[in-house]
Amino acid sequence: MVDGARAFTAPKGIPEYLPCDGFVRVRDALLTAADRAGYGHIELPVFEDTGLYARGVGESTDVVSKEMYTFADRGERSVTLRPEGTAGVVRAVIEHGLDRGGLPVKLRYAGPFFRYERPQAGRYRQLQQVGVEAIGVADPALDAEVIAVADEGFRSLGLTGYRLELTSLGDAECRPAYRERLQAFLARLPLDEPTRRRAELNPLRVLDDKRPEVRALLAEAPLLIDHLSDASAAHHAAVKQHLDDLGVGYVENPRMVRGLDYYTKTTFEFVHDGLGAQSGIGGGGRYDGLMAVLGGQPLSGIGFGIGVDRTLLACRAEGLPVDDAPRVEVFGVPLGDDARRALVVLAARLRGAGVRVDLAYGGRGLKGAMKAADRSGARYALVLGDRDLVAGTVALKDLGSGEQRAVPLDEAVDVIVTALARQ
Ligand code: HAM
Q1: For residue 112, how many C-alpha atoms fall within 13 Å in the half-sphere facing its CB?
Q2: What is the position in ligand 1's atom list of the atom closest to the CA of 63?
């Protein structure tokens, strides 16, 4: 180390994923499930105008009031590292007029989101999500599709130890009356001052109180699911019917409270039992007012965000192999300078033919280079010495069986492509 130099560490609460961690495999499995249902990929800005989240997610939410990474840029504009993806997608749909074509607009996204939360296992300040949003059609079959896509993503990874919790948060017709009913109920309870204030501001959130003594007081609280408008009740029944048809199991959780204010009607969470306190591996729902709130046409929307970090933890908890595939299929071992020149070229030709190839660099001896070949996870080693070069051949060694044979150099690409395809 240079004198006076110190080693840096990643910021607190921010996980990193190394090549062996299986991050890409998990993220891509979730993205693929969305791709199969026709969701086009959108890459969103990592920061946006702060007002977008204040208006879109809700100022009274913890996410907006306590957890945002907000700062003034050099032009004194207030910007915020995105805490979630839905507001940004809706902004982009409106800005680019995507809602003027065929509906629904179906988009998927993946990447880091930022929330200044207290870090603990499964709760990070930089979290990774895969999400989808379907905007512009209020068909309950679309709600079922969104849920089924998330479920299929988890299943394609082999996960089984999770459950889907489902409820309806109603609509503009039934919510105000329910809110008053709940507030009247809460006003009669001996609540402490902060809880009383929360009851004024956002009574639904009081239902999420984790303290046993408060939970006991809330046992008889009125539930929105019992006071839905006819339209919301019919929608909810239809979503459940579609889920039954699809064989996607769910449990109703009428006390579900989501941390974002835009939800209406269908609301859901995927909960994994092997993760301890941070058990939500994904969640989402309808947000039928959000397009209008953000200045667009009054179109409906539904989507989900899946926590990739937590899905990875769930895979580990279930003992599922999530390591990324071996880095390469073929590993070149040159013995001598001329052999190195020839193998560098052969490696490039193999890559051109779609084969993943690495080489032993740095003039390592045969033993060290073969060790590197084993470590790489490659199926084959290509060993080339000066004598092979004169003979115009290369030794192709099957690293599984140990079998080795000489292959003419100018046929090596075809032979290897055929051998790999046979597996
Ligand atoms: P959310 O429930 O806030 O929803 O986040 C979705 C998922 O992200 C959670 O279920 C969890 O797995 C993961 N997650 C959230 N916070 C953290 C954290 N601090 N550390 C690790 N993982 C975390 C949304 O963000 C909505 N935008 C989802 C949505 C899309 N609703 C409709 N469309």
Answers
A1: 13
A2: 3
Residue type, 375: R
Nearest residue by C-alpha to atom 5 in ligand 1: 305
C-alpha 129 – ligand 1 centre gap (Å): 7
* Ligand 1 mutation pick, 53, 90, 116, 127, max ligand atoms within 8 A of CB: 127
Domains and CATH numbers, the chain: 23-174+228-317 (3.30.930.10), 330-421 (3.40.50.800)
CA 224 to centroid of ligand 1, rounded, Å: 23
**Ligand 1 binding pocket mutation candidate from 135, 260, 264, 279 (most atoms within 8 A of CB):** 260
258 C-alpha to center of ligand 1: Å? 10
pTM as predicted: 0.94
How far is residue 160's CA from residue 371's CA, in Å, rounded to a whole number?
Answer: 38
Q: What is the pLDDT along the chain (423 residues), one digit of tens a residue?
A: 788 889 999 999 999 999 889 999 999 999 999 999 999 999 999 999 999 999 999 988 899 999 999 999 999 999 999 999 999 999 999 999 999 999 999 999 999 999 999 999 999 999 999 999 999 999 999 999 999 999 999 999 999 999 999 999 999 999 999 999 999 999 999 999 999 998 998 898 898 888 999 999 999 999 999 999 999 999 999 999 999 999 999 999 999 988 899 999 999 999 999 998 899 999 999 999 999 999 999 999 999 999 999 999 999 999 998 876 788 999 999 999 999 999 999 999 999 999 999 999 998 889 999 999 999 999 999 999 999 999 999 999 999 999 999 999 999 999 999 999 997
Q: Are strands 47-49 and 78-81 parallel, antiparallel or unpaired?
A: antiparallel
Give the bridge partners for 283, in sequence order: 269, 305
Spatial distance between the Cα atoms of 252 and 236, rounded to a whole number of angstroms: 11
Contact 84, 305 (CB under 8 A): yes
Q: Whose CA is nearest to atom 6 of ligand 1?
A: 305
Distance 131 CA to ligand 1 centre (A): 9
Q: Would you call 135 helix, strand, or coil by DSSP?
A: strand
Whole-number Å distance between alpha carbons of 376 and 359: 10
Measure 169 CA to ligand 1 centroid, in angstroms: 18
The alpha-helical segments, DSSP class H, found in 48-112 are 50-57, 62-65, 86-95
- How many CB atoms sit inside 10 A of residue 173's CB? 12
